[in-house]
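User: Could you go from structure to sequence for me? I need the amino acid at each position, not a summary. Structure tokens:
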């Protein structure tokens, strides 16, 4: 991915770059934007599971035991370091007292 010369010079003149600044700049790049948008479903799953787990004050280890999986699996899922199966996500949802709902929407 290549930054425009102006974006590069702006960033170079700063000593600190926030995640938001970098992301905003990178989103101007069509290739970056396309790849980022491909990950949106994974972001949504990870965010929803983390929020639900924290709301219920359940540790990753406790959730893993309830969902009949390992704590490392929960960690990888929350950190988006894997492609979970629907059955795994469903078991985790059930372990959190939730129901999995999948929707297909127009692009």
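Assistant: Here is the amino acid at each position, in order:
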């Amino acid at each position: 991915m290549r930054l425009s010369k102006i974006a590069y010079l702006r960033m170079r003149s700063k000593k600190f770059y926030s995640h938001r600044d970098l992301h905003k700049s990178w989103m101007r790049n069509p290739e970056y934007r396309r790849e980022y948008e491909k990950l949106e479903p994974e972001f949504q799953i990870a965010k929803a599971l983390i929020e639900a787990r924290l709301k219920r004050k359940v540790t990753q280890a406790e959730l893993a035991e309830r969902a009949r999986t390992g704590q490392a699996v929960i960690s990888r899922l929350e950190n988006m370091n894997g492609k979970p199966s629907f059955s795994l996500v469903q078991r985790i949802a059930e372990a959190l007292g939730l129901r999995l709902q999948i929707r297909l929407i127009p692009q």
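One structural detail worth keeping in mind: The chain has two domains: 5-38, 40-95.
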